[in-house]
Design goal:
It is a single chain. It is built from 14 helices and 20 strands. The protein has about 400 residues and is α+β, with helices and mostly antiparallel strands. The chain folds into 2 domains: about 240 residues, FAD/NAD(P)-binding domain, CATH 3.50.50; about 150 residues, no CATH class. Strand 7 and strand 8 form a beta hairpin. The longest helix has 16 residues.
């Protein structure tokens, strides 16, 4: 038997759902927010190394540009809740923020729990009802609204906002439930793939360098001679391959490729130094400091263990001294520093992905309201949409903004 009719049921209490439910309730809508987990915002707590990268230090146009062509979908959402308004929302709840050198914005406390606490406080004040540990099992249009079947009851709703997330970090509860709901209702789902995920490679030398971080490296993914994507940033070497912001940023191309082993990752370990400049540096050091080891000379720019490996990959012993360094040897070493090819095998998958690429096709959702073009009284926001951006807080901003606009439109 269906319970009394709610004006709105929001499915999923993540970043988008918490904001959507709050905004709708503040506008007087009798709102029920359903969450399958025993606590809300689990993914918020896990994000950014438990620090939560709230957004990025740019204007709304910068957010749109970061998403590429699909970013146009965010214009109305960002007009409703942009970067400045998002920061004001958190600061109004006592969460001071800071901008790091990369442009990422974090809470000053470096605690994701403060971000979640702010969202929950405002949700409680709004009058929305949060029900935890209540997964939705079925969503069926009926009459002028919906019947929402959960593990505990059947709920009637005049309108529904779906904010159930994608498939990244499935341990946080985002197991792709929403895709089944929207497909049953007639929506097209672009195949979900992991994004912002570590890349696995087939190179024996990588495991020996695990734990090394290079603060500024450039990665380019190529198929044969065709460049597919290039990014620059901090790189972390792991036993399985490559992680860190720059590796995560190129991963969506790897995930989307039908045969990742056809791809090659090219690493520039010193993108701020031109190859000719590096060659001249090595030539000068060979003349002036011939007794020094090559790897030691290179270590003025890069971690020593990495320099040992690069020297070996260039066909010389790790302890090779600079004296008598030939033009050909310099060229090989410069090539390894500036254009080191690494065979790709794939990624670590959804279990380690920060976001999902793919989801509900954007042309089936009205970007001015987040209203479904297929199903009356249905709204879709957050990661469930086919919209994913680079690392740096962009995806949280999209979640907050689309959630806010959906809650403002019901």
């Amino acid at each position: 038997m269906s319970e009394a009719l709610w004006d709105l049921v929001v499915v999923g209490a993540g970043a988008a759902g918490l904001v959507a439910a709050t905004r709708a309730a503040e506008r007087g809508r009798r709102t029920l927010l359903l969450e399958k987990n025993r606590r809300a915002g689990v993914k918020i707590l896990m994000s950014g190394g438990t620090r939560c990268n709230i957004t990025h230090a740019t204007d709304n146009r910068g957010i749109v540009a970061a998403f590429g062509p699909p970013g146009r979908f965010l214009h109305s959402a960002l007009a409703a809740l942009g970067v400045d308004e998002t920061l004001a929302m958190f600061e109004g709840e006592g969460v001071a923020t800071k901008v790091e050198e990369t442009g990422k914005i974090f809470p000053v406390s470096d605690k994701a729990s403060d971000v979640l606490g702010a969202l929950l406080r405002r949700l409680e004040r709004s009058g929305a009802v949060l029900s935890l540990g209540e997964p939705v099992q079925n969503l069926r249009p009926g009459g002028d609204g919906f019947q929402v079947t959960t593990a505990k009851r059947v709920v009637g709703a005049s309108q529904v906002i779906l904010t159930s997330g994608g498939q990244s970090y499935p341990g946080s509860g985002t197991t792709g439930d929403g895709y089944g709901f929207v497909e049953t209702l007639g929506h097209t789902v672009v195949k979900p793939v992991p994004a912002l995920v570590p890349v696995t490679v087939d190179a024996a030398w990588v495991a020996g360098l695990r734990g090394i971080t290079v603060p500024d490296a450039k990665l380019q993914v190529r198929e044969a001679t065709q460049p597919l994507i290039a990014r620059r940033g901090s790189l972390l070497i792991a036993h399985f391959g490559l992680s860190g912001p720059v590796a995560l940023d190129v991963s969506r191309v790897v995930s989307r490729h039908a045969q990742p082993r056809l791809l090659t990752l090219e690493i520039d370990w010193l993108p701020s130094v031109e190859g000719t400049v590096l060659d001249e540096f090595l030539r000068g050091e060979a003349l002036a400091s011939g007794k020094k080891q090559l790897a030691g000379i290179l270590a003025t720019h890069l971690p020593r263990r990495l320099c040992d490996t690069l020297t070996t990959l260039a066909g010389m012993p790790a302890d090779r001294r600079a004296t008598g360094l030939s033009k050909g040897e310099r060229a090989r070493l410069v090539e390894c520093v500036k254009r080191l090819p690494v065979p790709i095998t794939g990624t670590l998958g959804f279990g380690r992905a920060e976001v999902t690429a793919g989801g509900v096709a954007l042309d089936e959702v009205d970007s001015r309201t987040m209203r479904s073009k297929k199903v009356p009284n249905l709204f879709i926001a957050g990661e469930l949409l086919d919209l994913d951006g680079p690392i740096g807080g962009y995806n949280f901003q999209a979640a907050f903004s689309t959630g806010w606009l959906a809650g403002d439109s019901v």
